[in-house]
Specification:
By secondary structure, the chain is α+β, with helices and mostly antiparallel strands. It contains three helices and six strands; from the N terminus they run αβαββββαβ. 34% of the residues lie in helices and 28% in strands.
Amino acid sequence: MRGPALGSMARRRSSCYSARMSTVKVKVDTGLCIGAANCVGVSADFFRLNEENIAIIRQGVGTDFEKTIDVNPEQLALLQEAAESCPTLAIQITNL
């Protein structure tokens, strides 16, 4: 007896991968951000400070201060940790 066709295995692997991805909206409230850079310390891949020492979002689609991002569970955990590390709670993450 032969195993499953390669195509069906690839489809299963692909659907498992996409099921683990999430789309989130990340927003930095510029009125609250004080440039403490805790978010950058936690996740420099997602955040950096601009010339005015306000956090901006490096990845995704949208403006510097509000972007939609597709993330895996590890990236989502980093984003959440970065948001929680903000002393003024200027970072909001919303599942879409």
